[in-house]
Specification:
Keywords: DNA-binding, Phosphoprotein, Two-component regulatory system. This is DNA-binding response regulator. GO terms for molecular function: DNA binding. InterPro entries: CheY-like_superfamily (IPR011006), LytR-like (IPR046947), LytTR_DNA-bd_dom (IPR007492), Sig_transdc_resp-reg_receiver (IPR001789). The chain is α/β, with parallel strands linked by helices. The protein contains 8 helices and 17 strands. The strands form 5 sheets. It has a 5-stranded parallel β-sheet with strand order 2-1-3-6-7. A 5-stranded antiparallel β-sheet has the order 12-11-10-14-13, with helices on one face. A hairpin with a 2-residue loop joins strand 15 and strand 16. The mean pLDDT is 87.
């Protein structure tokens, strides 16, 4: 019997994973179900006997890598996430599989088969890891990769917002909202503008004040509002203003 744990904050996603695991030919015992970074950290702090972890990445209270960097997981991890930006980091955190939501039963079975192959040959795993690390060291440093779409959770579904369609992003406390050309509001899965800035291309997006970011291609025109402050006219007749402290950097970002 294989002991596994599930790290997932969406009840529907957790139910789907449990159902698919029960369909596998091997006998599986789900020993724990965790839904937050806090729960993961508490679990990792205790001695645990487990064979495999199925882990989401972006949880309700943060990124699960926060926990794995403080305390490495005691076994291999198959990551299941709606984001395609964390693949390299996943394999640097004991990842042996990376499934993008929505995934199929076949994809899960392939990931499980990979785990079973590794579990049959435990002595070869350190050698494979060492060979992979040596290969990565010979490669040139990768260019920073920025996301081209964002996964938006809405009630019982997840849809994808193309980054190119975002006109501006606005923060209201811990609520982060993106607005498209039609003026539609999309609630982003982040709790600060700093977190959004980390995944968006800084050549395309600029933070014009404490609570708003704009995408350059949607800026229609600029007008001076007062000394050291500009009014930005965006698509759909949206008007935003730069803060005095950001206007100079904004002009340099635009090359004017």
């Amino acid at each position: 019997m294989f002991k596994v744990i599930i790290i997932e904050d969406e009840p529907l996603a957790r139910s789907k994973l449990k159902r698919l695991l029960m369909d596998l030919s091997d006998e599986i015992n789900i020993t724990a179900e965790l839904s937050s970074v806090a729960e993961v950290s508490a679990w990792l702090a205790q001695p645990n006997e487990v064979d495999l972890i199925f882990s989401d990445i972006e949880l309700s209270d943060g990124n699960v890598f926060q926990s794995y960097q403080q305390q490495p997981p005691p076994c291999p991890v198959i990551f299941i996430t709606a984001y395609d930006d964390f693949m390299l980091k996943a394999f640097d955190n004991f990842g042996i599989g990376y499934l993008l939501k929505p995934y199929s039963s076949d994809k899960l079975q392939q990931a499980w088969h990979k785990f079973r192959q590794l579990s049959r040959q435990p002595d070869t795993e350190p050698l494979l890891v060492n060979q992979l690390q040596q290969l990565l060291q010979t490669l040139p440093a990768p260019k920073t990769s920025y996301t081209s779409r964002l996964a938006i959770r809405q009630q019982q579904q997840i849809y994808f917002l193309q980054v190119a369609d975002i006109v501006y992003i606005q923060a209201d406390g811990s609520l982060i909202m993106a607005f498209d050309e039609q003026g539609k509001r999309h609630y982003l899965p982040y709790n600060s503008l700093q977190a959004v800035e980390a995944v968006l291309d800084p050549e395309r997006f600029f933070r014009i004040n404490r609570s708003e970011m704009v995408q350059s291609q949607h800026i229609v025109r600029l007008e001076r509002y007062c000394k050291n402050t500009l009014t930005l006219y965006l698509a759909n007749n949206v008007q935003l203003k730069t803060s005095q402290s950001r206007t100079g950097d904004f002009n340099r970002w635009l090359g004017i």
